[in-house]
UniProtKB/TrEMBL annotation:
SMART domains linked: HTH_XRE
Highest taxon of the lineage: Bacteria
The name this protein goes by in its record: Helix-turn-helix domain protein
Organism per entry: Cellulomonas gilvus (strain ATCC 13127 / NRRL B-14078)
Pfam families assigned: HTH_3 (PF01381)
UniProt cross-references to InterPro entries, sorted A to Z: Cro/C1-type_HTH, Lambda_DNA-bd_dom_sf
Domain HTH cro/C1-type: start-end pairs: 32-86
PROSITE patterns, A to Z: HTH_CROC1
GO molecular function: DNA binding
Gene3D superfamilies hit by this protein: lambda repressor-like DNA-binding domains
Annotated SUPFAM superfamilies: lambda repressor-like DNA-binding domains
Amino acid sequence: MTAIEVFGDSLDPDVGLARSLVRADRDFLESLIKIRCNHGLSQTEVAELMGVSPSAVSRIESGMRDLRQSTLRRYAFAVGAEVDHVTRGFDRDKWEKRMAGSRALPSAASLWRSEWSEEPDAVVASAKAKAKASV
């Protein structure tokens, strides 16, 4: 199934919701990597704390896998992160009003590719750069 089949037209509020959810997942993962870097932990050290292989931690940080919450909790515990979940309703009317006057957005397929197009190493490097900048 293609992203367009899943998400439909890019002006559709469902695409806005999908985009928001993907962005939230990515931001969450980047924040965990940043905390790991700030604490001076290597992937190998996190793996030992989690009881998994270093390659498993690399796969977690790549963002390319759909992780279980229990795995993310173990990773967060290993890096010393406290996690708060925030949930709110998606305002479809607000989205539609905002999009009413805009030009066409990128297609859902290009959105899906762009949200996860970075290589795993680039995601880690980005998180490390953000960690250094905040020190």
